[in-house]
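Appendix B. Extra example for self-study. Work through it before the problem class; the solution is given directly after the inputs so you can check yourself.
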Amino acid sequence: MTALDLPYPPAVLADERQDLLSELRTVGMVWERELIRFARTRTRILSGFTQPILFLFVLGYGMTTLVGTTGGFDFKKFVFPGIVAMTVVSTAIFSAISIVWDREFGFLREMLVAPVSRAALVVGKTLGGASVATVQGTIMLVLAPLIGVHLTALLVVEVIATELLMAVALTTFGVFVASRIQKMEGFQVVMQLLLFPMLFLSGALFPLKGLPTWLAVITRINPLTYAVDPLRHVVFAVQHMPPAAAARFSTGVSLFGYTLPIGVELGIVCTFAVVFLSLAIAGFGRPE
Amino acid sequence: MTATPGALSPGELDTSKPLTAVPQRSLAIEVSALSKRYGEVQAVHSVSFSVERGEVFAFLGPNGAGKSTTIKMLCTLARPSAGRARVAGFDVVRQPKAVRRHIGLVFQDQTLDDQLTAEENLRFHAVLYRVPHDQVARRIDRVLRLVALEDRRRDLVGTFSGGMARRLEIARGMLHTPSVLFLDEPTVGLDPQTRALMWEDVLRMRREEGVTIFLTTHYMDEAEYADRIAIIDHGQIVALDTPDQLKHQVAADAVELVTADDVVAEQRLAAAGFQVRRDPERLVIFTANGEAQVARIVESAGVAVRNVHVHRPTLDDVFLHYTGRQIREGPAERSVAMPLRARMTRRR
Ligand SMILES: Nc1ncnc2c1ncn2[C@@H]1O[C@H](COP(=O)(O)OP(=O)(O)O)[C@@H](O)[C@H]1O
Ligand SMILES: [Mg+2]
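Solution. Structure tokens for the complete assembly:
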């Protein structure tokens, strides 16, 4: 089909071969917008820390007194990676609220009517939200010395990589929910209802060992479990842990008697991300 | 379609014929028997029209007439239930992406990100609409100049007034040099001064960029800026022509007369064959060629005339003629027995 031979500059007659490049640019632009908005809302950055810090100190110190110290390793140190995960997960999940926000304020339409694929928009949003969540989670590491958690450069890199994967997975989940829920309040309610059970039953805040069977089953179904454990594993790998402590505050998720390798856990998280990414793309802004 | 025969322009499509396979090069928009049904509601009912390149074309109709729905179908945001439409030569159903690349769109509701600056909003749009990298800065400069917002480019849109935001949206709609710019009720909620500014922007865009403009409005005075107007009511086009032709066809001029004795004057004028209506403080005489008739009217009235004034029909009158209603909601100011409601406040 031929276009009208319009006397316009070639801006609008971009070659079809440039499709992929243009989609990538769109991903980049949507991502950049998320970061710009994040950087401009200082209150949101700060409020993103209040809850994890509260949990770290209240739960960390409270439980330490209760649980005691095993070979110099205490509950604060155990829960620290879980708190980092908690920061990442809640930031990631709630970053998707920007979609509900965009819908309410109309900007979603500006995006949906553009000659770009929904996939590019969803991927851009996801990477944006995931980047923000990773940044928030990583900032939490400054508290490590206070808790007595030892950090190395390699450890920080590994933590960031794990956080990013976790963040992508949870953001796609958030985007999926946001693409189906029209109202701001609805999104917040659904997310609060999901977030805390998911967090509590993921091993972020207590060890997954010696749980009653029904609880163990739930934690094994919870996809977050497979994201939290690698993070803890990475952090514990460089801590000085006597065998007694390692046994008490163990890492690893066992399924049917086998302890899953980290690779499998990360694979489960990836699968989760891909599934929800596809669902999010499919459900994102259908035409009327 | 059941438009009044005289109200169809030569460019109008005959709905009994299918659209030609080859796009007509001079047409920016071709619409044939386009319909949209939402459940029980027939939002748009078999409308047909065409818009030439470089034209300013207005859809005029009350709330709920089907204006936004028509725009949504033309912009590929809603799927037609029946009928066909081509925009910039592309079929809206079969080539939606091509259509989107060739149109600019300003929605009825604001769609800016007010946490971004004006420039950031434009840059976002430029990337999504594939403005080549090396042209982005130049285009942003240009469209900001077109709407006189260059000095606010680094300000957050959240600090803009409603009028400025609207004009920024129009600039954004033009950023990727579309061949057709759609404006859905662009001036709703703006004060008269800002509306005038916005219209200057729009007409400047047309002049300098050769863009075709399709807009909807329920403001009569605004439709006057258009080259042609389609009056839409209950999802149907009831009239389509230039503003002058529409006014010319529907109504005579109204000569308003304030006399010493309206009752007597009314009787005499009626006896002389004039069509007269007596309002509380004046008489209104409906006649072709009002100005030329003034002398004869004053003479026929036969009583002292204190004040005369000739009133040409407005688009309100046109709208009333075709729909039997005034466009604005709320009760009519007075009963409308006559086919023409003369308005003192707006005169040409
Ligand atoms: N998404 C929708 N679902 C159901 N009905 C709709 C929808 N959009 C519009 N309508 C109905 O279609 C009719 C035309 O609406 P619209 O095109 O918005 O009118 P206008 O823009 O002229 O005010 C109205 O009766 C409206 O209620
Ligand atoms: Mg509307």
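Self-check: The pocket of magnesium ion (ligand 2) is lined by residues B 67-68, 108, 184-185 (CB under 6 Å). If your reasoning did not lead you there, revisit section 3.
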